User: What shape does this take?
Amino acid sequence: TSDSLFNSDVNLAYASAQAINIARIGGNYQIGAVTVGAYASFSDYKPDGSSTFAVSEKYKVGSAYAVWQVSAPLSTEIGYVYMKSSGDSSATYNQFAVAADYYISKRTDFYAFAGYTHASGSNGLGAADAVVGSTDTDSGKSSQAVVTVGIRHKF
Assistant: This one.
């Protein structure tokens, strides 16, 4: 499910981990109508005798983004994520995304998102598959591009 930690081929091979250690730090700073931010994280998937992998798998992630509040109803965002895995397997992922959000009322907005991810190397399942952010849809290829537009109403 989308609530699972193992929702794509990026780390699915490590669902049998005995323990997962995760550390993350981040921050943001607002300069007028622009907010810039970044974060870094480290994850370590530890195996035991019941795991389907024998060597600890580590993920290092870095991200940077900027959000511009163009006007009261309109905001735009740009972001980049770099992820490197090592240990049981070795893969590199680069993701770039842009988005816009336009509110027509307090509870209703139009949104647009475009993202691109490129993967190289291998994960515990074979060749690394590209997966754009929270789409949770494996591409089956080394690159994936996604465009989403919609209207959202909050009840």
Summary: Strands lie at 19-31, 34-46, 57-69, 74-86, 90-103, 108-123, 126-127, 143-153.
